[in-house]
Amino acid sequence: MGKTKYYPVNEKISADEMRIIDDTGENQGVMSRDDALALAKRKELDLVVVAENAKPPVARMLEFRHFLRQQKDQERKAQRKSKQDIKQLRFGPNIADHDLNVRIKRAERFIDDGDKVKFTVQFRGRMITHKDVGRDKLHQIIEALGEKIDVEKDIWMEGSQMMLIIRPK
User: What stretches pass through the bilayer (predicted)?
Assistant: First the structure.
């Protein structure tokens, strides 16, 4: 996980004036640091600068521990979303239509979960002479998933395998 951001709190705030947002999220206007600290102390909350670069800086009244926990949770969620797995689905060029539809449904679930999907058509023996059949199956998959996907890597051959990688839009 990345380095946590530093937030000036209570007496560590260096700005003389700041825009105050209270615990309900309402703008209390611009006030001096001392007035803001007194108001926060009356409400038994911490005063935290959340936008230091704004003119004047923006400070919120909140429970600092709770705020830090929320920030860490948001960071974890963002990290979880950015991680993508590549799921692989394999089949032969002579796969039955129903079996291919089952693979397409499974790929659709992977795409909905935000994962990339790699389709591999495995050619065995003399089947390699019918590459066009494998290519047709992969094009059928692209058509079936249509609007939900982007083709990350178009159809290519590697040894006796024909592959395709798709990702969610």
Answer: none
